[in-house]
Design a protein that fits this description.
This protein is an alpha+beta fold. The protein is about 45% helix and about 10% strand. The protein contains 26 helices and twelve strands. Helix 2 runs antiparallel to helix 4 (about 100-135), helix 18 (about 405-425) packs antiparallel against helix 19 and helix 22 (about 555-565) packs antiparallel against helix 25.
Length: about 675
């Protein structure tokens, strides 16, 4: 039997472990640094593969700044944000006289060249970090530290690739199957573990539980801190493995080299301060407060800094990020101050600030005076936004089968290039934006608006692409995106917040809610308080009223409940539904529904006959009986509020309802109400 020779072969290439490298982050700088390094290494692989006469299929990086910089076409410094996903597809076409076997061999050789390029770029960055921060004198003081370094650097990355051809040429899911083949086992490491990447041995090699080695371990890391010269690089008490050391410290050295430099010519480039110093989670939580203080209360800010100086508090200018739009025009020193110094909880914790009791009390007293002058302290909550395109393998297959694979590739490129501007416009910072993936940090008040703007941008980018498909195939390529948005207290570990955001995205927004959805959760220090998933359309339109513009459903509802409807109805500024009343309502309503409503994510189903009317009547009566509305809201105002509450708090899914599930108008979740009040109060607890 003869087989027709395939004229094309596609190489699908990926680099991991992503979660083991990016997800294991302690600070925002670690999160950004690992995301950027991952893109940096993948681009080196991509450049090496394309040099073997391969044609890029996915992603669209022709206008990508990082690829241009590596190929010597960019400026002196690379872009600030990683913009290339950890996987790519390159197509190889048979040339004259090239048979099937040779074509596959050429594609396989290109994959090996890509893998080698990853290793070379990684070792180059690692060596630059080792020379600057871990010279022979320091590693020699450890216990087999040089061996630990070499072992971890050489055996971390896992490259996976697969070739498709013939009938499987358009199978973009083949790489996912290939990744399930375990080709790399990470053996358990001995000794004390890294402070950032918990499964890896820290570099000193000593075990602190052994009295004779405890002092040696402390001395080792004290020398590293002295070598670094800044606690922004290595903090007191941190112990790093080689991998964490590279992802934390490579921006400080000439570690990033162009392709020409890697081949023996030219020098590397260190990153600029704006790419090294990233705002902490506590700083992101404080952005709206800072903008208000610097815009309206400069004298109070001056007095606060003078009080700190008088108390001999060393003010570290730790926050030098200039990308936050609402702060860009201010040069006041408060903007650059370590955000721990104007946070009440941090000032009360000497382990955070490093202040002795006298200085801590003086700083806290100065902060309290500032709070009184400006109307309160900064919020302690920030938002982490994670977004990912839905069913991308299916979308690419449909376009590929129609011979239009370039359309979604260009759409993804267009979307990715616009992410940074949208996030900046909402006072956030982009950690990563590549293909259909987005990771950003934002203040509470801007986060949902940013998510909606990004979803609209994604739809716009794919609108033209989907129009190129035959009418009968457009439904087969659902070009939608899902998101998770986590409102988290700044004292929660960043790695935990990131892991929870991934769970919300994959398990709730995509799986449980049927994709094209957003899952929102609130995590306080005591645990998860609320979790709500809904469709993009419901988030945009629910609870709408004339003149409210593009405000999202939670914003409309929260503003109405906390401070009236904003339409000049004469009501005072007291909350229509206080925190205590809300929880009393939830307790009583739990007796009416078929489930307990005090569990985050719980959704109750109303009776089929008259349930909705009864719930509305009961809620109105409880509002009128509460002290919060006496003399301030009449019956009609309460009925209007209840109508809005019921509309927003319905459960909306993108997937079809299951047999046992009630339709939206017979569902109710208190979590949307909790989130709406939380956002309306800017994350501040009630007194």
């Amino acid at each position: 039997m003869s087989h027709a020779r395939p004229v094309k072969v596609r190489l699908h290439f990926t680099l991991g472990p992503v979660q083991g490298f990016v997800g294991e982050s302690r600070r925002t700088r670690d999160l950004w640094g690992s995301s950027f390094m991952l893109s940096y290494l993948v681009v080196h692989a991509l450049a090496a593969v394309r040099a073997r006469n391969g044609e890029l299929v996915l992603p669209d990086v022709e206008n990508d700044g990082l690829l241009a910089w590596i190929e010597g076409r960019g400026g002196e410094l690379p872009p600030a944000v990683g913009s290339v996903p950890n996987r790519f597809t390159v197509e190889f076409t048979a040339v004259d006289g090239e048979d099937d076997q040779r074509l596959h061999r050429r594609a396989g050789d290109a994959a090996c060249a890509g893998k080698a390029a990853v290793g070379k770029a990684w070792r180059s960055a690692a060596e630059a970090v080792r020379e600057r921060f871990f010279p022979a004198a320091i590693l020699g003081a450890g216990k087999e530290s040089a061996s630990i370094w070499n072992r971890q650097i050489e055996h971390f990355w896992d490259v996976a690739w697969i070739l498709t051809s013939g009938e499987d040429l358009e199978d973009f899911s083949a790489l996912d199957v290939r990744k399930n083949w375990r080709t790399k086992d990470y053996a358990p490491e001995a000794g004390d573990k890294c402070s950032i990447m918990t499964g890896w041995q820290e570099l000193s090699g000593y075990v602190r539980s052994w009295p004779e080695e405890q002092k040696a371990q402390l001395a080792f890391w004290d020398r590293v801190m002295q070598q670094a010269g800044s606690n922004l690089d290595v903090q007191k008490g941190e112990r790093l493995c080689a991998i964490a050391a590279v992802k934390r410290l490579y921006p400080r050295v000439a570690a990033l080299k162009t392709r020409a430099a890697l081949q023996g010519g030219g020098d590397g480039a260190a990153l600029a301060d704006g790419q090294v110093n990233w705002p902490s989670t506590r700083y992101m939580a404080s952005v709206p407060w800072l903008a208000r203080v610097l815009g309206q209360h400069v004298r109070a800010a001056d007095a606060f800094l003078e009080a700190l100086d008088a108390a001999d508090v060393r003010c570290t200018d730790a926050e030098r990020n200039t990308k936050i739009a609402s702060l860009a025009g201010f040069t006041h020193r408060l903007r650059f101050l370590d955000s721990n110094l104007y946070d009440r909880r941090s000032l009360s914790n000497s382990r955070v600030t490093g202040l002795d009791r006298r200085r801590s009390e003086a700083a806290l007293a100065a902060a309290e005076r500032l709070y009184r002058e400006v109307g309160g302290p900064p919020s302690s909550y920030y938002a982490l936004l994670l977004m990912d395109g839905d069913s991308m393998g299916k979308v690419l297959r449909v376009f590929g089968e129609e011979g239009k694979i370039g359309a979604p590739t260009r759409a993804l490129g267009r979307f990715g290039r616009g992410v940074g501007e949208i996030v900046r416009g909402h006072n956030g910072v982009t950690v990563y934006a590549g293909g259909d993936d987005v990771l950003a940090l934002l203040p509470l008040s801007n986060a949902l608006g940013c998510a909606l703007a990004l979803e609209a941008s994604y739809r716009d980018a794919f609108g033209e692409a989907c129009d190129r498909l035959p009418a009968g195939r457009r439904e087969d390529a659902p070009a939608t995106i899902s998101a998770s948005l986590l409102f988290a207290d700044a004292q929660l570990p960043l790695r935990f917040v990131l892991a929870e955001a991934h769970h919300l995205l994959d398990g709730v927004a995509k799986e449980a809610n049927g994709r094209s959805s957003i899952a929102v959760a609130l995590w306080k220090p005591s645990g998860m308080t609320a979790r709500w998933a809904t469709t993009w359309g419901h988030l945009r339109s629910a609870g709408g009223a004339g003149g409210e513009g593009g405000e999202h459903a939670l914003g409309r509802l929260g503003r109405y409940l906390v401070a009236g409807d904003g339409q000049g109805d004469g009501r005072d500024e007291r909350a229509l539904i206080s925190s205590s009343l809300l929880y009393r309502l939830r307790e009583q309503f739990s007796q009416l529904f078929d489930t307990t409503l005090d569990v985050p994510g719980a959704v109750g189903s109303l009776p089929a006959e008259g349930g909705g009317e009864f719930v509305g009547t009961l809620m109105t009566a409880l509002l009128l009986q509460s002290q919060e509305v006496t003399g301030a809201a009449d019956v009609e105002a309460c009925r209007t509020a209840v109508q809005r509450v019921r509309e927003v708090c319905q459960q909306r899914r993108h997937r079809p309802l299951l047999a046992h599930e009630a339709p939206p108008d017979r569902t109710f979740t208190f979590d949307a109400l909790i989130l709406a009040r939380f956002l309306a109060r800017d994350g501040q607890e009630e007194a």
